Amino acid sequence: MASFLRDDPRLSQPLREAMARRVPPVRVEERAYTPAEFDAIRLAARRTFRAALLRVRENTATLQAWREGHHEPGTDGYLLGEALDLLAREGHVPRQLRKSGTSHGQRQVWRVPVPYEQALGGSHPRHTWQRLYLTCAEVAALGVLFAAEYGLNATPISELPAPRPTPDSVGDGTLVYRIELTKRRRQSRHSEVRNFTDFGATSPGRLITEALEATAHARAYTAAAGGPDRLLVWHRSHASGPGLGQFNFGLTKYSMPSWIRETGLVSVSMRRIRKTVNVVHRREPGQNSQDVHDRVYVLPEPQAHAVAVPLIADGAQEALDAARRTVLQARLIDAPQNGDAETVTNGCSDYMASPFGSAGIGCTASFLLCTACPNARIAPHHHPRLAYLHQVLEGLRGVIEPVLWQADWSEAYARLSDLKDRIGPGVWAAAQSGVTPQDRKIIHQLVNGHYDS
């Protein structure tokens, strides 16, 4: 809109300046659920959906037994199976229109015939259509489980087509579901495909298998009636509003409040569930770019800060250790001091107090580590030998495997490079020109391991 209005010559300069200012993004105040809150929500959803799944599974078995002729006509088992068969095909159990009310205000209502009502155990929805179909609240619980398991938004869950196993996974006991997810607001890479495998009770794909089982009758009915291909299909008490007859699809504005009332939970946010999964549990983007994931979801989240503290501390310690290994620790002096002992590479002020071993037994570390020791002393007469060692290590870099050079020589080389920077190019050049045959001999022996204890 701003780019369109800028072309209007009537636009005042102050207004143009105001329109040019960047509007800061709205701060996201939503927080991930705590572990206790998340577990409570997921447990409540599991209980709701598990009860619904077992109910549908039991009545499906009863229907199958009736279709296979396992019940004698006229028995309660036969009437129950007959009612379930009609329920699966028509979306309702046997019913009749009857008058209800007084003579001044009569209306016609559907009633379950007495024999079927007795066989079903009553005429309440839990005795009739809920035998094969999920309720609005139960579909909400299933949606919560999908968000908690896969870190998806409410809209992709609501609009998700019924997943089907890949052809090559059918028949071997393992089912692989390929799900295509679409994010409407993203112009590029707006869709992604995820695979979920059902190889057992705790596998990622088991929830999909159970969701397909729980919604099988509803999906079969709506498919036969020309309805959309959706995973979340549920039965409603009144055929009004969007949907297909007695059935509706996905999550509506009534789904979550209905389930919350049944469970006694205070509130449930699908956005917070998704944030908990992607930021606290999976710690990776879910239908977002890495930049959006880090900037919008991770950085404002206190739980992410708490998790990051030990990681940052470990990283800082590792960086500090690396710096100590590769930065010169030896002291630079103008001349040898009383009490200093000469080593292969430099002087040493306290041979018995080495940081690389136990105090009092003498240093046994490699002479290559002298430049990493605070007891080391480097005077000008040490410069030529150390400059030549630097040259030899640089030459080794081109003739041995990079991995070996990195492991054995890189830290010593880095410390000598630090020494080179500290004393300056002029002094370093003079040191290189002052290398003696004895310096070369000692350095070659050092590099070849002749001084190793």
Top keywords for this entry?
single chain, 453 residues, alpha+beta, 4-stranded mixed sheet, two-stranded antiparallel ribbon, 10 strands, 48% helix, Integrase
Protein described:
By secondary structure, this protein is of the alpha+beta class. The chain folds into 2 domains: 31-288, no CATH class; 327-447, no CATH class. 48% of the residues lie in helices and 9% in strands. The chain is built from 18 helices and 10 strands. The chain has helices at residues 2-5, 13-20, 35-67, 76-90, 114-120, 136-150, 154-158, 206-214, 216-224, 255-263, 270-281, 290-298, 302-326, 383-397, 402-408, 410-423, 425-433, 437-447; strands spanning 96-100, 107-111, 175-182, 191-198, 233-235, 247-249, 331-332, 341-342, 347-348, 376-378. Strands 7-10-9-8 form a 4-stranded mixed β-sheet, with no helix packed on it.
